[in-house]
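Weekly modeling sync, notes
Attendees: S.R. (lead), two postdocs, one rotation student

Agenda item 3: backlog of single-chain predictions. S.R. asked that every request posted to the team notebook include the full sequence so nobody has to chase files. The rotation student volunteered to paste the first one in as an example of the format we agreed on. Action items at the bottom.

Example entry:
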Amino acid sequence: MQVDRNSIWLITRVDGIKDGKYRVLAHYANYDLLILYRLNDEKGLEMPVPVKYPLFLESARCGNSKISSYSTPFYQLISEEDISPAHRVKRNNRFELINDLISNPEFLLDVALNQRSKIVASYAKERGVYVQKIYRSLNQYWQYGQEINALLPAYKHCGGSGKSRLSGMAKRGAPIQLSTPSMVAPLGVNTTEEDKTKFLLGVKKYALRGKKVSLNRVYEQMLKEFYADELQLAETEHREPALPSLRSFRYWIKRLVPEAELIRKQTTAGDFERNRRGLRGSATDHTEVPGSCFELDATVLDVHIVSEFNRNHVLGRPTVYCVVDKESRMIVGLHVSMEYASWRAGRQALVNSFTSKKDYCARFGIDIDESEWPCHHIPQRLLCDRGEFICNKPEELAVPLIGHLSIAPPYRADLKGIVEHRFHILNEKLIHELKGTTRGRHYIRGDRDPRLDATLTITEVTRLLIDQVLEHNSSIFDGLAGQTLLLVEASLPPTPLNYWNIHLKKHRHALNKADEADIRARLLPVEQVSMTSKGVRLNDDMYYECDREEFEDWKVIARTNGRWKLEARFDQDNASFIYVRFRPNEGFTRCQLMLHSANFEARHRADVLYFEDWKKVVKKRSTPTGKSIERHNRRKAITVLAQEGLKREPALNSKSEKISNIKERRRDAIMEARLTSDNDFVELHERESSVDGIAIEKASNVITLLKRARSPNNEN
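Predicted structure, as returned to the notebook:
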């Protein structure tokens, strides 16, 4: 075993040595001795102790001697430049006093083996100093590591710093400084132990109650509670009350009550855990690679939107769902809708996270390469809120895909800090600059109503958010640089996109993939559609078709035998397609929107619902107008006149007389109509001839000017 010089050992049950901590001063191999010095904080002088080296090794092997540590005082752990000149002079003088002794290789052996060292006695006589002075410097040198800074003056032990003192009759502390000579300030009183007890009682009763309270308020309530007798007596005797001042109260509260306890007790447990507790590490401490954990959360966007069918109709503030990879900070999924935070909207965000983003961006007119947003994977674990995923549906539908679902406890948004901070970034860099934004604060009286400035539709807001997400994924985050060496080795900037790509390239990830149809079949909401003669019908106006060979036959059957119900999956972000199960024992088939329903192409679910609601409202408001009533009355009058005219006709002999010779009567009516129309044509022709004559006469009076010849240079 190696026993190093200056090493610290905790020694117990060794013959000839007191139990305690010892510093190894030297090892004399020729004599097989160790020289130890007992680290004692008492004022008395200590002498080095010799111990046989084999005995020490045997005690270490048996566990009686164990390696330990000893703290160096803070005033010795400073650079040479920070030592004051006065302290440097004292240190150098002390070192010069003992330098010749400690430079002698046999000095420690002589001091350890002899109770009274002749070397020290003769040395003190030569220098003209007391032996005790030399031993005090040697003790300080040995105790703090046998280096020159061990001899710095230990003024930290001087005075009574940090110790309470008993006050006398004289008033302590600086008096109040007044600028007016004729004004006299009350002298005040010293704080007694009884006052300190009352201070603690007042703080416990009025300050440590789970909410923030100012010390001024606590001081005022404490005086009324514990100094009521003195206040009333002083008022009766017309004198100043003998009370501790607010300044004294503040001073002693800071000394008697730990500041951390004051912070903890002046807030709720939830707020302390979220916003005030000490941080134990990073949010990515428990994730190792991309895909280890996705965080999902929703928030109401700080902007009002309008309908795509009518921009004068404000729909309110949409809800945005964001899915973020915890390790790489990559935003892997996005969903914007008018739905409130729920499982119905949350699963749409999961579908977006697990499927390709190229087609998703193309629906909003943004053309990207697959490499710009290469996130279409399933994570190892999903961390989300209780609100959306505490029901049974996520366990049944999402868990078979993901594997593990973690539910954050209530009021602990700090456990999803990565996704929460993404909302802050999106608000700061985009949302709070849009028309109709609330800027994340409540309406203040006198402010302009942000709903009046609403301009953007949900599609336009989604398009802006997609651009901002792409910008975020390509932005530099300094925190990513320290999480892996792969970025440094590849000389890549620390962006979420680079972090994601380099880990996938090196196969260091926990990501899985699944078929898109399977993902949508598991997660999208169930809809009931009908197979009709026109196609697959959703609602009243949306028809879909697919490219299956038997689809036309199903339309024929539906037209003849009537429609039948089918199970489908509907994407709320895009009404352009649905997934339909045409037969019970088969999977889902993708169906596209038909041409005569093209008005709903790429529409959001919110716009489809708006259209349905608009039809209901219009139908409800539809009432007969004045013109409609006029036409109704005219029809009635014509019917009455016709009936009266029929009554004036001579009576027929039989019913067959009324319907006989219909062809001859029809032919006579046609000839009569032709003669009438020919007479009208003759009149019209005569009027047109007269008009043409006037036009010819005017045209004869028109003089035509000669045209100028065009020069060759002007030709173009």
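Discussion: group reviewed the output briefly. The mean pLDDT is 85.
Action items: rotation student to repeat for the remaining queue; S.R. to check formatting next week.
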